[in-house]
Amino acid sequence: MATLMPFRDAIEHIKQTLTTVTTTESVPLSKAMGRILAQDVISEIDVPPAANSAMDGFAVRTSDLKDNASLTVSQRIAAGSAPMPLQSGTCARIFTGAEIPQGADAVVMQENTRQQENQITFLSQPTSHDNIRPAGQDIAAGATVFTKGKRITAIDIGVLASFGITQVEVYLPLKVGILTTGDELQSPGTPLSGGQIYNSNGPLLESLVVSSGHQVSLRLHAIDSVEATQTALKALSDCSDVIISSGGVSVGEEDHVKATIEQNGQLHLWKIAIKPGKPLVFANVYNTPFLGLPGNPSSTLVTFHLFARLALAKAAGEDLDLPKAIPVKSGFSRKGNQSRDEFLRVHINNGIATPHAQQSSGALLAASQTDGYLHIPAAHNVSPNDEFDFYPFCSF
Ligand SMILES: Nc1nc2c(c(=O)[nH]1)N[C@H]1C(S)=C(S)[C@@H](COP(=O)(O)OP(=O)(O)OC[C@H]3O[C@@H](n4cnc5c(N)ncnc54)[C@H](O)[C@@H]3O)O[C@H]1N2
Ligand code: MOO
């Protein structure tokens, strides 16, 4: 039996072997959401560019208020106007976001004053810096705000706009070819004949690829023959940066994916110490990086989340790791698998994990009905209150 590779070693191996395959383009900020930065982004300015008021009130020199409770207003500063220096012994009417006049070192909010015409009585003694947002509080000029490899979120668009960015250099979207294999598979929409099941991995993989931020170049299905598998993989390699397949990677005579790779590419790794998902293939076929996911639907899902997602990210130029694991307690007992780490589909209630009753790798619905994966290391018998890593589905 081939040795099973520990899952973190397999992730490392895949990331080390793959290189970024896409070229770059410049896009306007309005089209940058969801794209991957191909360059570091540096701010040329301080954000905010000048100190400004955090409150509607009065800008003062705190030293002027040491012996005085009352000052006259010498200027009015609205947001968007340039202030004059503050005359000593006076205060300035100021509004939220307006620039602090030179000489002022605090703003007193208007609720802490009494106003009589142009004369302001201060009801509290301010401390230097009160209610002043300093220049560069958010971003300092010269700072590297985002590094190459970051996928741009809606929040990032706001941040980029805050220091005046209009264009960003990003990688072209990764084109992913998808192959499903198996004589038993029928497309939804056609009645099933004897021995057939519906092809669920095709739509599942398309959706996973798209929700991971990539494009599907082409999806094909191959019956269980070496010729059909070769023809499909060749066609996919002609239009794709990376190919993902489901099924045909186990040891039966009807499993042709691995054989096709051995004839037309190089096998990098096969068989990982995880359940579900053991017979994952990572290879190169017709000069295209290739991930062969096991056909059992839960094995397809788990291996996409743990391996294919990170492989696609690496090829697309994205800096990505497994999501942050959340420590949770087990609310159950279970005999551990001797040689494979298990990824159970579990419910979480008040920080306690309970496994779905259906953990077969052939069953997909359990994943839809649960919150995420509980990672049980190999050879670990689970007792109630043991702590394990939990990966929520929403973090993939
Ligand atoms: N003798 C052994 N048999 C198996 C082993 C083994 O070590 N020795 N490993 C088992 C494990 S673990 C897995 S996982 C599967 C992987 O099999 P394949 O990747 O070769 O996949 P298939 O045999 O083609 O299909 C497995 C299963 O999944 C269903 N399937 C396949 N594609 C789809 C699809 N697109 N949509 C829905 N369902 C799909 C298929 O009908 C099978 O039921 O091998 C075990 N066997
Ligand atoms: O890995 Mo297989 O996925 O256990 O059924």
TrEMBL record:
GO biological process, one term: Mo-molybdopterin cofactor biosynthetic process
EC number: 2.10.1.1
MoaB/Mog domain boundaries: 177-314
Pathway assigned to this chain's UniProt record: Cofactor biosynthesis; molybdopterin biosynthesis
UniProt KW Metal-binding keyword: yes
Membrane-spanning parts: none
Reported cofactor(s): Mg(2+)
InterPro entries, sorted: MoaB/Mog-like_dom_sf, MoaB/Mog_dom, MoCF_biosynth_CS, MoeA-like, MoeA_C_domain_IV, MoeA_C_domain_IV_sf, MoeA_linker/N, MoeA_linker/N_sf
Catalytic activity: adenylyl-molybdopterin + molybdate = Mo-molybdopterin + AMP + H(+)
Keywords noted in UniProt: Magnesium, Metal-binding, Molybdenum, Molybdenum cofactor biosynthesis, Transferase
Gene Ontology CC: cytosol
GO terms for MF: metal ion binding; molybdopterin molybdotransferase activity
Protein family (similarity comment): Belongs to the MoeA family.
Function: Catalyzes the insertion of molybdate into adenylated molybdopterin with the concomitant release of AMP.
PANTHER family: GEPHYRIN (PTHR10192:SF5), MOLYBDOPTERIN BIOSYNTHESIS PROTEIN (PTHR10192)
Protein name: Molybdopterin molybdenumtransferase
